[in-house]
Design a protein that fits this description.
Order of helices and strands: EHHHHHHHHHHHEHHEEHHEHHEEEHHE
Largest sheet: 9 strands, mixed
Radius of gyration: 25 Å
Distance between the termini: 43 Å
Shape: globular
Helix content: 40-55%
Strand order of the largest sheet: 1-8-7-6-5-4-3-9-2
Length: 481
C-alpha cells in the first residue's frame, strides 16, 4: 500500500493499530445497530462498476459484430441463419432481461445509444453504474456524516433517481439552510459522483464519456455538461508563457527573510506570493556542499475566468486535464532564464494549480532529462491521475479532506483507486470546514503547525537534503505571453 497517513490509515512512523475490542452485546429484543462498513460498500461498488463496464463492452462488441462486413457476407451466404442470429442479437441488445438497449460503439451503435439516451431508455450498464455511484455516495457519508443529513441526502437521492428538478430544489433548500459555501462543502466529497450521475441520466448523449471514465477510476478528459474534449482548452489557453525577473515588495521580502527548509515555511511563502502571477526560485547551499534549487508555485486566482497570467480558472482546468500548459511553459522558461545548471537537483512545491503544474513539470520528459526533479510537494491539488517521468521523484501530497479541489481528479473518499506505493499522501480533517477557507494555504499551514505536527516532521525529514543556507530568493512574474 502507498505511504498514506490519516485517521483511516497508518503511514510511515505512525503508531500501530490498537488491539481489537470485543463487540458490545446487544440486549435481546433491541434493534441491531447500524454498522455500515464503508469498505464493504466500496467493494460492492467496484463489483457493480466492473459489471457495468463489462456490459458496456459486451454491447459494443455485439453491435460491432452485428453490423460488421463479415456478418454482411454471411447474410448473402446463409440468409436463414443470419436472420435468426440478427433476431437473437437484437433481443440481447434491447431486452430488459438482456443488455436493455445496450447498443454502442461504431456509427450505428452510437446512433442507437444516442437515440436511447434522448428517449430516456436506461440500459443495464447504466442501471448498474448508477447503483455503483450510489454505493460510493453512501460509503463517503460514513466518513462525512453531513452527507447523511436529510437535506444533503435529498440532493444525492434526487441525483441518483435522475430527477434534476428535484435535485435543484433540494440544492436550493440546502443552500437556504447552510449558505452557499457550506452547502458546496457538504456535497464536495461526492462532487465527481454527482457530476457523473448527471452525465449518465440526462438527455444529452455526448457527455456520457465523463461518467464512464469516472466510473472506471480514470481522470475525465471531457467536461460533464457538454462533453467538450480537453483539447478545446489549448485554444482557450494558447499562450507561449513568459517569465520576467521582479523584486519582492516589502511584505514578501519580510516573509522570505525568515524562510527555511520547512513545509510550513514553504506553504507560508506560497501564501505571501499571492495569486497574481508571482512564483519564486530559491537557491540553497545545502549542508552536504551541493547547491540545490526550490521552485514555489502558487495556485489559482478566482477573480476572472481568464487573465494575463497562467494562474487563472482556464489555466486550472487546462492543468488538470493536460500537461503542456501556459503555466508549465512559463515555468520552463523561468528555469532557463535563471540559468539553473543542467543536472541540478530541483524540488517543486505548489498549492492547488501550482501543485498540478509541479506534477506537469515533473511529467515533462524534457524537464526531467535536463534537471533532476527530486521532490514534488503538492498542497490541496488534484494530482492523482498524473505521474512523474522519473520514477525516483518523491511525490508528497498534502490533503485537507474538507477541501473540494483535491477531489477533482476523480479520487474522492469513496473511490476504489489508490495512489502509487512510492507516493506519500498525508490527509486530515481540520476545523476549516467551509470552502474556500479549507483550500487556502493558510489553512494548510495552520494545521501543520497544530495537532498533526508529526506530518510536518515527516515531510521535513523527507526533504532534509535541502537543509542549508538560502543564498538566493528570486521572484518571477509569469505571463501568458
Amino acid at each position: 500500500m502507498p505511504a498514506r497517513e490519516g485517521p483511516d490509515a497508518v503511514g510511515d512512523g505512525a503508531a500501530p493499530a490498537a488491539a481489537a475490542v470485543p463487540a458490545a452485546r446487544v440486549p435481546e429484543g433491541a434493534p441491531a445497530p447500524d454498522r455500515t462498513d464503508a469498505g464493504l460498500l466500496v467493494t460492492a461498488s467496484v463489483l457493480l462498476a466492473d459489471a457495468a463496464l463489462t456490459a458496456r463492452q459486451s454491447g459494443a462488441e455485439l453491435t460491432g459484430a452485428l453490423f460488421s462486413r463479415r456478418f454482411g457476407l454471411e447474410v448473402l451466404r446463409r440468409p436463414g441463419w443470419a436472420l435468426g442470429t440478427a433476431v437473437t442479437c437484437a433481443r440481447a441488445l434491447t431486452s430488459p432481461s438482456g443488455l436493455g438497449f445496450g447498443a454502442n460503439g461504431g456509427l450505428i451503435g452510437e446512433l442507437a445509444r444516442m437515440a436511447g439516451s434522448m428517449t430516456h431508455r436506461r440500459p443495464a450498464k447504466v442501471a448498474m453504474a448508477v447503483d455503483a455511484f450510489a454505493l460510493r455516495i453512501k460509503a463517503a457519508a460514513v466518513e462525512h456524516p453531513n452527507l447523511d443529513s436529510p437535506p444533503a441526502r435529498r440532493v444525492t437521492d434526487a441525483m441518483v433517481a435522475g430527477n434534476r428538478l428535484e435535485a435543484l430544489r433540494a440544492m436550493h433548500a440546502l443552500t437556504e439552510l447552510l449558505g452557499v459555501t457550506r452547502a458546496l462543502t457538504t456535497i464536495s466529497p461526492v462532487i465527481m459522483e454527482l457530476l457523473a450521475l448527471l452525465g449518465l441520466l440526462d438527455e444529452n448523449p455526448v457527455n456520457d464519456e465523463f461518467s464512464w471514465v469516472t466510473l472506471a477510476g480514470g481522470v475525465p478528459t471531457t467536461d460533464p455538461f457538454f462533453g467538450l474534449p480537453s483539447s478545446v482548452l489549448k485554444f482557450l489557453n494558447p499562450g507561449p508563457g513568459r517569465a520576467e525577473r521582479t523584486e519582492p515588495d516589502a511584505i514578501l521580502a519580510k516573509v522570505l527573510a525568515t524562510s527555511r527548509n520547512d513545509i510550513v515555511s514553504y506553504v507560508g511563502d506560497i501564501g505571501a506570493l499571492g495569486n497574481h502571477g508571482l512564483v519564486l526560485l530559491r537557491r540553497v547551499a545545502c549542508a552536504d556542499g551541493a547547491v540545490r534549487h526550490v521552485l514555489l508555485l502558487p495556485g489559482t486566482s478566482f477573480g476572472l475566468l481568464s487573465n494575463s497570467t497562467p494562474q487563472d480558472l482556464v489555466g486550472a482546468f487546462d492543468g488538470l486535464l493536460r500537461t503542456d500548459t501556459t503555466y508549465t511553459r512559463a515555468a520552463r522558461k523561468l528555469l532557463l532564464r535563471a540559468g539553473v545548471p543542467a543536472g541540478s537537483e530541483l524540488m517543486i512545491v505548489g498549492h492547488s494549480l501550482g501543485g498540478l503544474t509541479a506534477m506537469n513539470l515533473a511529467a515533462d520528459v524534457e524537464v526531467s532529462s535536463t534537471y533532476r526533479v527530486t521532490h514534488v510537494i503538492t498542497v490541496g491539488s488534484p494530482i492523482d491521475g498524473k505521474r512523474p517521468a522519473d520514477h525516483t521523484t518523491r511525490v508528497i501530497s498534502l490533503v485537507n479532506k474538507h477541501d473540494v479541489i483535491p477531489m477533482l481528479d476523480g479520487r474522492g473518499p469513496a473511490s476504489p483507486n489508490d495512489i502509487p506505493e512510492s507516493w506519500v499522501e498525508l490527509a486530515w480533517l481540520d476545523e476549516s470546514y467551509d470552502y474556500p477557507l479549507s483550500h487556502a494555504p493558510q489553512a494548510y499551514s495552520d494545521t501543520l503547525r497544530g495537532e498533526p505536527t508529526h506530518y510536518r516532521e515527516h515531510v521535513n525529514k523527507l526533504i532534509s537534503a535541502y537543509d542549508g543556507e538560502v543564498v538566493g530568493n528570486q521572484p518571477y512574474m509569469l505571463r501568458d505571453k
